[in-house]
Structures are given as structure tokens and as C-alpha cells.
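Lab notebook, bench 4. Still working through the backlog of constructs that have no structural model yet. Next entry is a single chain of 225 residues. Request: give me the C-alpha cells for it.
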Amino acid sequence: MYLIYFAIIVFIPLWAQMRVKNTFAKFSRVPTSTYRRGADVAREILNANGLYNVAVEEGRGFLSDHYDPRSKTVRLSPENYHGNSIAAAAIAAHECGHAIQDGEGYAFLRFRHALVPVANLGSNASWILIMIGILAHLSGLLLIGIFFMAAAVLFQIVTLPVEFNASNRAMNQVVSLGLIGNREEREARKVLNAAALTYVAAAAVAVLELLRLVLIFTGMNRNND
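Model written out:
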């Protein structure tokens, strides 16, 4: 059972990452019919939504695209900032979707931001408490570690609606503003769906690991009884 479990938690993230890389590689070679760069797509979406205060900058690293709510900046990886591909347009639009969420005060995004310090503490402290609790057979300490991990898992789960909503906003923007052709909508959605799989995989693995630890805790208490 443990071999099957570890195979699952290793295979799921690897499969999701391979799916993202393969999909991106495929559609990063296909230019949009409008030939707009990712940076231009982002700027047009932001302006269309009145987000003139949100900057668009070139970031560093492969697929390092993100929206920074603190500095109000959409940062696109070099290949997406300069590229005029379907992949570049889709990813740029997705990050702008987060900027629109931020501007509107989207509830799940605000909740996720509020969870950040708790999730960071949980992910950093949980395994220390969990390992000590298991090795020393201290079920109370293990339970505290599980609660810390649960906070990090909750962050992963809340991330899902945030990411899916940003992708839906992205598709609405690129279509309504004519930033991609009608025939390219399906391909752009494939890019966004592949990217979303990484978040689904991370959440699934986190939930499985949490359930495993809960089973260890219940087993430890049963043995103590």
C-alpha cells in the first residue's frame, strides 16, 4: 500500500508538470493571428479594465509568470513577454485575470492572501512537529503538526477556485477584446487547462498526505489504548 501511495504522490505532480511543459512547448510555436506579444496582450487587458496602475514587466526564469499584488505588477517570463504565440497570450491573460480579481476584491483571492502567513508557518513547522511526534510516539505533538499542515492544505484548496476563475476571466478577455482569433480559443484554453492541472495535482497530493498522517495519528492512539 505504501508503495502505491508513494507512486501516486510522485506520479501525479510529474505528470502534471510534463503536461504543462509539453502543451506550452507545442503552442509557444504557434503565433496568434493578431501577432501581439504577451506584454501587449497584458497591457491591453489591464487598460480595458481600468487597471492603468498595474505595471507589466519582464521577469526571469522559465514559466515564472505571476501577478504580484503588493507592487501591482504582472511579471511575464521572457518567452511570454516577448512572444506572440497562443501560449504567451493565454498565460499573459491569466495573470491579468489575477490583477482583475485583485482590483475587484475577489473573495477567494482575499481569503488566499489572508492564509499566506498561516500557510507558510504551517508548511515550515508542521513536518518538524510531525516527525518528532512519530519518532517519539507523542500523539499530541503529531496532532499539532497535523493542524499546522491542514492550514497549508487549506491554502492549496483555496488556490483552485482562484486559478480557475482567473483562467475564465482570461478567456473572456482575449475573446471579447479580439486579442486572439475565434479558431484559437480552443488552443488557448488547452494551455490554461494544462497549467491548472499543476494546482489540482498539488492540492490532491497535499490532501492525500494529510489523510495519511491522520491515519497514523488514529493508529497511534489505538495502540496507546
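Notes after review: The longest helix spans residues 185-224. The chain has a mean pLDDT of 92. Flag for follow-up if needed.
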